[in-house]
Known about the structure:
N-(1-d-carboxylethyl)-l-norvaline Dehydrogenase, domain 2; Rossmann fold; alpha/beta; 8 strands
Amino acid sequence: xxxxxxxxxxxxxxxxxxxxxxxxxxxxxxxxxxxxxxxxxxxxxxxxxxxxxxxxxxxxxxxxxxxxxxxxxxxxxxxxxxxxxxxxxxxxxxxxxxxxxxxxxxxxxxxxxxxxxxxxxxxxxxxxxxxxxxxxxxxxxxxxxxxxxxxxxxxxxxxxxxxxxxxxxxxxxxxxxxxxxxxxxxxxxxxxxxxxxxxxxxxxxxxxxxxxxxxxxxxxxxxxxxxxxxxxxxxxxxxxxxxxxxxxxxxxxxxxxxxxxxxxxxxxxxxxxxxxxxxxxxxxx
Length: 285
């Protein structure tokens, strides 16, 4: 591997480029539609050159990461004139290597390397990337190259088939993005009793951290706590009444989440079948 270049150097591209360079890999090129982004990237990686176009970068790099937004990956793959023997990689969770078919037809080796993590800013991306699990989709020899990258990033890897990508990405979207949504909804309710959302978030951080610890250390279904796990039908009834008054639009969401939680309570062994039936009747009404 003589040279690695990045087309698109936002949060993910920067994290990959900087950390791979730190791991001893030859990161030599950066290109972004925003010149200041390319300059920022190059300033963080010794020996890295800024390229004005995707084509000029591809002309000189042996290993090209396309780390643009998902919807642009296919455009880049189509517009660039690739040369046989190059490796072309994207880091999308939802897209398979099919989006790189123009490069594959040109004789390139293609692959996908997606970090199962969240990237909210440049600094957070640099911190979060290390130690991630990476889902890989590629054939040899690129698959071995990607495994070397994972090792340098102190992560673990697993392989996925193309047809698995959309469901995989939906699952981590639920686990990550919609967790933000749920916490945002939950803490916004505190305004009904005069507490700002920022203060509510601060108050909830210990329970959120404890929840993550329970998932990691206890696992499912044992990690489940709360009124569904205990079969507290009366408490759930009070919740519904309070939500109906504060924000009735949230009641269907609350009921759906409760119904989805019942099987976990049963599996844990703390929710009896009788109480489960009562909860289903209440939450289905």
